[in-house]
């Protein structure tokens, strides 16, 4: 089994709404973490191209676009999965992100599982020389901060 980071948070919104905020407003709630930047020029403004086969892209401040990954599963209100790579990854390197949206009463548990970091060498720029366990802890903290912002964005979103 690939090394994984798993982070969950409850969002005060139905699963369909939480999914929409995750994908449609990622450019609003996503904030760059200096330790885990997507490119040397930062993270830019993220956006999803909807549906399986779509892409997770970012537009950098200089106007360039960078493809972070491809959407492999798109089930609104249930699941979103996509590949993930930083600009320092070689073409054959990537990790995967799996996001689950699970109704819990009036709320939704959003669980992010980010897999595949064991194939990225400790010496790689994206790992910063951290041993795998330390790296996973730091990456989990980063995802948790981002999911807190997702929670705030979902609370501010207008219901349909």
Jot down its keywords:
single chain, 160 residues, alpha+beta, Alpha-D-Glucose-1,6-Bisphosphate, Chain A, domain 4, 7 strands
Distance N to C terminus: 40 Å
Low-confidence stretches: none
Q: How many domain units?
A: 1
What's the mean pLDDT score?
Answer: 93
Going by CATH, the architecture would be 2-Layer Sandwich
Which CATH C-level class is it? Answer: Alpha Beta
CATH topology term: Alpha-D-Glucose-1,6-Bisphosphate, Chain A, domain 4
- The backbone outline, from C-alpha atoms, is globular
Instruction: Determine the fraction of residues in helical runs and give it as a percent range.
Output: 10-25%
* Radius of gyration, whole Å: 15 Å
Please state how the strands of the largest beta sheet are arranged side by side. Answer: 1-7-6-5-4-3-2
CATH superfamily: START domain
Which class best fits the helix and strand makeup? Answer: alpha+beta
Determine the strand fraction and express it as a percent band: 25-35%
Largest sheet: 7 strands, antiparallel
Number of strands: 7
Order of helices and strands: EHHEEEEEEH
Query: Given the structure, what is the number of helices?
Result: 3
């Amino acid at each position: 089994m690939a090394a994984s980071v798993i982070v969950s948070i409850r969002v005060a919104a139905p699963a369909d709404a939480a999914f929409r905020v995750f994908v449609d407003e990622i450019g609003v709630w996503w904030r760059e973490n200096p330790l885990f930047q997507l490119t040397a020029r930062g993270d830019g403004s993220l956006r999803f191209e909807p549906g399986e086969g779509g892409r997770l892209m970012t537009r950098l401040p200089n106007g360039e676009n960078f493809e972070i990954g491809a959407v492999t599963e798109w089930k609104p209100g249930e699941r979103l999965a996509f590949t993930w790579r930083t600009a320092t990854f070689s073409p054959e390197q990537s990790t995967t992100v799996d996001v689950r949206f699970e109704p819990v009463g009036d709320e939704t548990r959003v669980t992010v599982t980010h897999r595949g970091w064991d194939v990225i060498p400790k010496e790689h720029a994206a790992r910063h020389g951290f041993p795998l366990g330390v790296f996973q802890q730091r990456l989990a903290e980063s995802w948790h901060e981002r999911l807190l912002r997702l929670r705030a964005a979902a609370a501010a979103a207008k219901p349909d």
